[in-house]
Design a protein that fits this description.
The complex is a heterotrimer of chains A (about 400), B (about 260) and C (about 325).
Chain A (H helix, E strand, L loop, with lengths): L23 H4 L9 H5 L10 H9 L3 H5 L12 H5 L6 H16 L5 H13 L31 E6 L3 H4 L1 H17 L3 E3 L9 H5 L3 H15 L4 E6 L2 H9 L9 E4 H6 L2 H4 L9 E5 L13 H8 L4 E4 L21 H6 L5 H11 L4 E4 L2 H14 L6 E4 H9 L2
Parallel strand pairs in A: 1-2, 1-3, 3-4, 5-6, 5-7, 7-8
Helix pairs in contact in A: 9-19, 17-18
Chain B lengths: L1 E6 L1 E3 L21 E3 L1 H17 L2 E7 L4 H11 L3 E6 L8 H13 L9 E5 L10 H9 L3 E11 L4 E7 L5 E7 L2 E5 L11 H10 L3 E4 L11 E7 L8 E2 L4 H14 L4
Parallel strand pairs in B: 1-4, 1-6, 4-5, 5-11, 6-10, 7-10
Antiparallel strand pairs in B: 2-3, 7-8, 8-9
Helix pairs in contact in B: 2-5, 3-4
Chain C lengths: L4 E4 L2 E2 L2 E2 L1 H17 L3 E7 L14 E6 L8 H15 L3 E5 L7 H9 L2 E12 L2 E8 L4 E7 L4 E5 L17 E4 L10 E7 L13 E5 L9 H11 L2 E4 L1 H5 L20 E5 L5 H7 L4 E5 L13 E3 L3 H16 L1
Parallel strand pairs in C: 1-4, 1-6, 4-5, 5-11, 6-10, 7-10, 13-14, 13-15, 15-16, 16-17
Antiparallel strand pairs in C: 2-3, 7-8, 8-9
Classes of the chains: A alpha/beta (about 400), B alpha/beta (about 260), C alpha/beta (about 325).
Bound molecules: flavin-adenine dinucleotide.
Flavin-adenine dinucleotide sits at the interface of chains C and A.
Chain lengths: ~400, ~260, ~325
């Protein structure tokens, strides 16, 4: 019987740890000054046996196997801080760390169970939480505005909105999707979604050691894209944005690409008159790693927030390129209990302490991972009465009503 | 050690199950099939034994949707051979008929004999008319034990020491003559992760051996007739128990007592 | 004359199991509908005395043999098969428990009889036995008719109340009968291994009392412990409770903790975050206590109340204790 989730691999032509130095990006590693800025900027640099600087040193010394015997690579949350700060412009998070993690996965006697389950779920159901793939679009009925699903109406659209997992399945993620749908509707965006045909873009598979999983998902999603006609992909998830931008292009992804926040930011002139309701809130914005450091979308979310009547924007100590990761990237989403058991501080807690210190009432975010991570951290630290977590789209939609 | 693991695909309950138009079976066009959970543990236990003691490990399954994924995954994890029984229209065979098929295939040769240990899951969610392990043991005339969480073979003495789970965290140790059929409850460690790249590689370089289904006397055992199937009522939202805390706790206590939970 | 309904009387380490009484109650209902009698089959070695507890059965068939000292499915099934061939019961009820699992399947195979597992009820329709079985982990209910007599019915817990199958009176008739079993057995029981003190596997529990931040403080965990003791379960919790060190990490339920499917999950002061729900939504019966009527836990619970846990807990404990006697 022909049903299969896994398709056989195409011939590997990609970079590996062995042939690393044959590629210009790989050769850059040889220029490392061993200055240690990466260690200082890494949120878990102080607890890793092998922080980025030492990994490069071990690689150059031909002793890389030693690194695989430590747990250091588990603690990399793919926050792009080391890469953003490197004076030699070494693409650590993009080049070295995924290759290292891939090898670590092959050698690890046992994966932390939670991560293993997330990877298996993503392969089988197209989402890490192991929810039914056929219920991915179930939230659409609750959106309050019509949402076109390509499978039901394949007419061409300007925009394919790639919703992603947390925004499809988690109740708070769905809040954010409903808000996005209302904004698109109000702006008259001609868009459609893939509904149950959509599967996770796979970015966390890639940055979480699993290139085979990532490629399977990439091949799958690209095949679905090719069934329909649209000119632009807009996604709610910075991780999906990253995957499309940096990897899907290698197999022919040629659409215009946006994350929801900058996409809305560019339509601010049309959006502004719709933002009628005052929110009267002091808001602090958390720059997500993938949107911020990786894409430098620092201004769009802030401009959107300032456009909301009554919003006063305040900054946390660490903002923009210096923002502190929520701890969810690179597999952290499925490892933070494991980290805690190793005595490591949860990064989401580190972050919300800073947010609370600003005296803000709202912690604004634009990555679906952050909602659940920060809401949990606020509860654990007892800040939940003082501070609410809201996606930028939620605040915009709130301001649009009534 | 020659190890054989019997794998069975069962309807995946993460996805909605639909009832076929005759009202007496699942709509198999809608159902997705997944490897039975305790079979996955049986495979893990067999892999551990092979790593420890050497020998060969074969996996055997009757054809079903998505069975190839399960078999290639087993190969990628370290099984030496994967065999699939092509039984034509098998989607709705009961466990007894499946066990008849598998036992016949094992007995017919296919280089599966001699075998020291046959491992499979203790129980599957669709074992309506019987469990796989005791049925195969019965057909092949082998000893059988289930709810096993540890197997330590002693090939020199042709026995294995097995640990079985009892209620309340108590375990029991048995000695069983080899060859034997063992129903695994859970392996000594959780089933391992196999990177998708390895499964993809197995799909390119390894092969699933397809075995034609043997013809069974009277077409296999069908001794239970499913008359109708239905879905239990969706709960949707909790029934709220109102009243003072005293009244509410009394009411709840009653509900628990009704269900034999107090 | 319709055949009688047999119940394999499970006992373990000298005690008759609760499920035996449940099966006796069920068996009696079926026998009544069929116009026959319910009979208990007591297999074992040195446990004849247990027959006195099986008064709900019209008759106890008692067999003592060395090879029956511990349940080995092959041996138990052989003994039952020999007895069944002699007496031709209409049905044999066997528990699908950790002690007895496998006996029913082998018995049916030996007799060429029907087997129906996962039965939660059994009725007689047009003079024929029809089982209500729960398939696919509870997702589908089905009505199944046996195609060959006798039918071996695999019974899960909760088909009837155990009390309905208990009797103060000893059974009217106890017949001691013999079976012919081989001396040398290919499976030999060696020893029991006792759990280490304090070792608790939450995935193995029938009853879980789960506490969340609503429990307020570490000191209040004791209230939950008392209820758990009264219900014969153990205490577990949400991640924040574990993070604070109020309970050990092995008791965390959820995405990054344990996935559990107990018969009863009492969620006390737990909001029902998706990460938590992922670990417990498979429970058979979920009861939530939460002061916030809008808490998402009520979307997965079967029963709920908005009482204050600290008030509610001691009340429930007291009532449960009273019921237990
Ligand atoms: C990556 C990640 C993984 C996670 N993994 C897990 C996991 O495995 N398991 C898990 O549980 N969580 C997990 N979480 C945390 C999860 O998001 C929630 O924060 C957590 O489950 C909340 O726990 P809680 O329900 O005890 O607390 P809260 O959400 O604060 O809920 C407390 C509840 O108690 C009620 N309450 C308060 N006082 C009373 C009273 N006196 N009487 C009755 N009710 C009262 C309140 O109304 C409230 O609903 C994870 C989070 C993340 C980000």
């Amino acid at each position: 019987m022909g049903v299969s989730t896994i398709c056989p691999a195409p011939a590997p032509t990609a970079m590996t740890l062995e042939n690393l130095f044959e590629f210009p990006e790989g050769r850059r590693l040889l220029t490392c000054l061993q200055c240690g800025v990466c260690v200082g900027t890494c949120p878990y640099g102080d607890v890793m046996d092998f922080p980025p600087r030492r990994i490069i040193a071990m690689l150059r010394a031909g002793m890389i196997e030693k690194v695989f015997q430590s747990e250091s690579l588990l603690a990399c949350v793919a926050c792009y801080a080391c890469m953003a700060k490197c004076p030699r412009d070494i693409r650590l998070t993009e080049v070295l760390l995924p290759l290292m993690k891939e090898q670590a996965l092959l050698r690890m006697p046992e994966l932390p169970g939670e991560l293993q389950k997330a990877l298996q779920n993503t392969l089988r159901y197209g989402n890490p939480m192991g929810e039914s793939s056929r219920k991915r679009a179930a939230w659409v009925k609750t959106a309050g505005v019509p949402i076109r699903i390509f499978q039901e109406n394949p007419a061409p659209a300007d925009v394919l909105w790639f919703v992603e997992c947390y925004t499809s399945y988690y109740p708070r993620g769905q809040d954010c999707s409903r808000a996005t749908a209302r904004l698109f509707h109000a702006l008259g965006v001609d868009y459609a979604i893939l509904g149950n045909e959509e599967k996770c873009a796979g970015e966390c598979g890639r940055l979480t050691w699993e290139p085979g999983l990532f490629e399977t998902l990439m091949d799958y999603n690209m095949a679905v894209f090719q069934k329909y006609r649209f000119g632009r992909v807009v996604t709610s998830c910075p991780h999906a944005h990253n995957a499309f931008k940096n990897r899907y292009t290698s197999i022919g992804f040629g659409y215009e690409l946006d994350h929801t926040t900058p996409f809305l930011g560019r339509q601010l002139d049309r959006l502004r008159p719709l933002l009628k309701r005052r929110l009267d809130a002091k808001v602090t914005y958390h720059d997500s790693c993938c949107l911020g450091r990786q894409n430098e979308f620092y201004d769009a979310p802030r401009e959107l927030l300032r456009a909301i009547p009554g919003v006063k924007l305040v900054e946390m100590t660490h903002n923009r390129v210096n923002s502190i990761c929520c701890g969810g990237g690179g597999g952290g989403m499925w490892l933070d209990t494991y980290f805690k058991s190793r005595g490591m501080e949860r990064l989401s807690e580190r972050r919300v302490k800073e947010a609370a210190a600003t005296g803000a009432d709202v912690l604004a975010v634009s990555c679906p991972y952050e909602i659940s991570r920060f809401e949990d951290a606020l509860k654990v630290l007892g800040f939940e009465k003082q501070l609410r977590v809201r996606d930028v789209t939620e605040l915009l939609a709130e301001s649009m009503e009534g | 050690m020659n190890l054989l693991v019997l794998l069975k695909m069962v309807p995946d309950v993460v996805e909605e199950l639909e009832i076929a138009s005759d009202g007496a079976g699942l709509d198999m066009d809608v159902a997705r099939m997944a490897l039975s959970e305790s079979d996955d543990h049986a495979l893990e236990q067999a892999l551990l034994l092979k790593e420890r003691m050497g020998g060969t490990l074969a996996v055997l399954a009757v054809d079903a949707a998505e069975v190839d994924d399960a078999l290639f995954t087993a190969l990628a994890k370290g099984a030496d051979r994967a065999l699939k029984v092509d039984a034509g229209e098998v989607a709705q065979l009961g466990t007894r008929a499946l066990a008849d098929l598998l036992s016949q295939v094992i007995a017919d040769g296919h280089n599966l004999l001699p075998v020291d240990l046959i491992l499979t899951g203790t129980q599957a969610i669709d074992d309506l008319d019987g469990l796989m392990a005791p049925l195969v043991a019965h057909q092949l005339g082998l000893p059988y034990i289930a709810i096993v969480i540890q197997v330590t073979p002693d090939p020199a003495r042709r026995v294995a020491s097995v640990v079985k789970e009892y209620p309340g965290g108590v375990r029991g140790r048995f000695e069983i003559d080899l060859p034997a059929v063992v129903g695994i409850q859970s392996a000594e460690r959780p089933p391992r992760y196999v990177p998708v790249a390895k499964v993809r590689a197995a799909m390119k370089t390894q092969r699933i051996e397809t075995v034609q289904a043997p013809t069974l006397a009277d077409g296999g055992t069908v001794l239970a007739e499913v008359k109708s199937m239905s879905k239990p009522e969706e709960t949707g939202r909790a029934e709220m128990i109102e009243g003072t805390p005293e009244a509410a706790s009394a009411r709840l206590c009653g509900i628990l007592a009704e269900r034999g939970l107090v | 004359m319709p055949g009688n309904i047999w119940v394999l009387a499970e006992h373990w380490r000298g005690k008759v199991s609760e499920i035996t009484f449940e099966a006796l109650a069920l068996g009696r209902d079926v026998a009544d509908q069929l116009g026959s009698k319910v009979e208990a089959v007591l297999l074992g070695h040195g446990v004849k005395d247990l027959a006195s507890q099986l008064g709900a059965a019209a008759r106890v068939i008692s067999t003592d043999h060395e090879a029956l000292a511990e349940v080995v499915p092959e041996v138990y099934a052989e003994a039952l098969a020999q007895l069944a061939r002699r007496e031709r019961p209409a049905a044999v009820l066997t528990p699908l428990s950790n002690v007895t699992l496998g006996v029913g399947t082998l018995l049916a195979a030996k007799l060429g009889a029907s087997a129906i597992n996962f039965c939660k009820n059994v009725r007689v329709v047009d003079g024929k036995i029809e089982a209500h079985a729960v398939l696919y982990g509870g997702k589908i209910e089905t009505k199944v008719a046996a195609a060959a007599e006798p039918v071996v019915l695999g019974i899960g817990p909760g088909a009837r109340l155990a009390d309905a199958g208990r009797s103060a009176e000893p059974p009217a008739v106890v017949d001691e009968v013999t079976v012919d079993l081989p001396e040398a057995q290919p499976i030999r029981f060696k020893e029991f291994i006792e759990p280490e003190a304090g070792e608790v596997d939450v995935t193995q529990q029938d009853v879980l009392v789960a506490v969340g931040r609503g429990i307020g403080s570490r000191d209040n965990i004791a209230l939950a412990e008392e209820l758990a003791a009264a219900l014969g379960g153990v205490v577990c919790g949400s991640r924040p409770v574990i993070d604070q060190g109020w309970l050990p990490p092995s008791r965390q339920i959820g995405k990054s903790g344990m996935q559990v499917k107990p018969r009863l999950y009492l969620a006390l002061g737990i909001s029902g975050a998706p990460e938590h729900v992922e670990g417990m939504r498979g429970a058979e019966l979920i009861v939530a206590v939460n002061t916030d009527p809008a808490a998402p836990i009520f979307n997965v619970a079967h029963y709920g109340t908005t009482a204050d846990v600290l008030e509610f807990l001691p009340l429930l404990t007291e009532q449960a204790k009273a019921l237990r006697g």
